[in-house]
C-alpha cells in the first residue's frame, strides 16, 4: 500500500451516494422557489435557500457545495427579478447574506476536507508502523500451524503493551509472547524493544536460557540509558513466555518469566503448563539468583497449544466477573488454530460487551501430523 495516497475521506459517502443525495438540496431549492412564487408577497421563503448549500456540505466536498450555493444564489436572483424587486434594499441584503454565508460554508468544508486528508495520511502511516512492529505470525512454520489475534485496548490502535513473535531456526521454531507492565507510549516502546531484541537474537545458535538472558539484558540496559523518557519509563518489566519447538521431537521447551501458563489441549483434556521454576519478568533478572531454567512438555501431533496474555483472563463483564478462560476452553469442539482463535475472540468480546480495558493477545499453535 502506498501510504501517501491515504484513506478515503472521513464522513463522506461514495460517488454514487453523493449523486443521489444532491437531489435533496436541489429539490429544496425548487420547493422554495415555487413557494415564493405562489404564496402572498408578505410570505418570504427565499431566505431559506441558505439551507441548500448547508445541507450539501454535510455529505459533499467544497466544489459540489459551492455549485449548489451558486444554484441557490441564482434562484434568489430569479425570484427577485420575477417580482421586480431586484434592487430593493431588503432583497439586496438577503442576496448579500446568501452569498456570504455560502462562501463561508464552502470555506469550512474545504478546511474540514483538508484535515480529513491529513488524518487519513497519519492513520495510514500509523497502520504501516504498527504492522512493521507487530508483524503477523505466519500460518505455517515447519511442522506448526499458527493463528493469532491482537485486541488493542486503545481505540484505533493495533498494538499496545502486549507482544508476540516467531522466528524460524535451522532446528525448529522459537516464539515469544509477552505483556509489558503499564500502558501508553512507554509500554509500546518497551514492547518494540523486546520484539526487536528477540528477532535479532532468536536465530543465534544459543540455548534458550541464554536467549532469555539476552532479552532481559536488552531491556535492563534500556532502563539505565540516561535519556529523557516518558513518565514511568525505567520502571517497566515484561512478563513473557519464551518457547522453543524442535522439528524432530514432540516437545515444547519453555522459559516462563512470570507469564500466565499456556494451555495444552489434547483430545478432550486441557492442561495448564505450570512451570515448576518460573523466572522473574524480563527487566528484573538482576534481582534473581541463578540461571533461567528450561522446562519440557509433551507436544505431539494434533495437540493445540494456547498462549495468551493477562488481558484475556483479567477481562471483566458488566458485573465485574473475570473471563473464565479455563471453562470456555471446554466449549470448543472444533479443530484447527484459526477456528479456535476466532471462537475465543468472539466469546471474549461477548463477555466484556465490546468494552475492552486492557490489551489482549491470543496465539494458538498446532503440531501437524507428518502426513498433513
Q: Could you give a quick summary of the protein structure above?
A:
This protein has about 375 residues and is an alpha+beta fold. The chain has helices at about 15-20, 25-40, 50-55, 60-80, 90-135, 185-200, 210-225, 310-315, 325-330, 335-350, and strands at about 140, 145-150, 160-170, 170-180, 240-245, 250-255, 265, 270, 295-300, 305-310, 360-365.
Please provide a written account of the structure.
- The chain is an alpha+beta fold and 372 residues long.
- Helix content is 41%, strand content 18%.
- The protein has ten helices and eleven strands.
- The protein has a six-stranded antiparallel sheet with strand order 1-2-11-10-7-8. A five-stranded antiparallel sheet has the order 3-4-5-6-9, with helices on one face.
- The radius of gyration is 31 Å and the shape is elongated.
- Residues 1-11 have low confidence and may be disordered.
Quick one: how many beta strands? 11
Largest sheet: 6 strands, antiparallel
Strand-and-helix sequence, N→C?
HHHHHEEEEHHEEEEEEHHHE
| SSE-based structural type | alpha+beta
Task: Note the gap between the termini.
Answer: 34 Å
Helix content: 40-55%
Round the mean pLDDT to the nearest integer and report it: 84
Strand order of the largest sheet: 1-2-11-10-7-8
Gyration radius, rounded: 31 Å
Count of DSSP-assigned helices: 10
Low-confidence stretches: 1-11
What's the overall geometry? elongated
Q: β content, as a range?
A: 15-25%
